[in-house]
Amino acid sequence: MQLCPACLLVLGAALGVSVPGGCCGSHSLHYFYLRLLEPSQELPPSFIRGYLNDQPISRYDSLARRGESLVSWMEEVEKETFLSLEWVFRSELEKLSRLNHPTNGLHTWQVILGCELREDGNKGGVFRYGYNGMNFISFQKETLTWVAAQPQAREVKEKWDKDAGWSQKNKVYLEKTCIVWLQRYLSYRKKALRKTGSPRPMTTIESKSYGSQ
Question: What are the pLDDT digits (tens) for 90-148?
């Protein structure tokens, strides 16, 4: 995983991946999670930001304890549509953090979680953890297994691979739940553009999604 300066600016010290856009008729919905391991005056202990393609649409921080819409058409949407912090940042990570990070400096866990709906109807999904901006462990929805990118992640992988229930729920989220919300957001955005008189050509995905409402 390559470090992405734009994402670091967005999240403060975030997972090093670029925000997927809507290239060639594809659309994506992604959430970036960040958890600080030490107190910071500049940032809340945990926060989340949601993106539809490359557009920021929602955010949450653990101090405010509520979600906030970043675009007008999100006002009609339930704001708590992201997975809970407890779901994403499991206890194994907290234990590992206390054992394996240096005492000085700002240390973070980062997660990118989301899905992609391509023009041909194929679906993609990502659930990836980073530690201090480095790839740590990622979920493979096709095999319901985890891939460790660091030696410290091997113990976590072994435990998470045995949690079949959680892995199945992750697969359902990436392939179904996330896709449903992605299609809804595309529909809401299209309706908002129609109301403001800013028409643009509809992609095949948006046309199907909007027509199903």
Answer: 888 877 776 655 556 667 889 999 999 988 888 899 999 998 888 999 999 999 999 99
The rounded distance, in Å, linking the Cα atoms of 26 and 11 is 24
What distance in Å separates the CA atoms of residue 77 and residue 79, rounded to the nearest whole number?
Answer: 6
Return the SS3 of 48. Answer: strand
Q: 210 near 186, Cβ under 8 Å?
A: yes
Give bridge partners of residue 170 from the DSSP assignment.
Answer: none
| Amino acid present at 8 | L
Contact 33/48 with Cβ under 8 angstroms?
yes
Strand partners, 115: 29, 125
For 188-204, how does the pLDDT look when each residue is reduced to its tens digit (9 = 90+)? 888 888 776 654 444 44
Beta bridge partners of 35: 46, 109
CA angle at residue 207 from 204 to 208, to 5 degrees? 90
Q: What is the rounded CA–CA span in Å between residue 61 and residue 47?
A: 4
Are the C-beta atoms of 102 and 167 separated by less than 8 Å? no
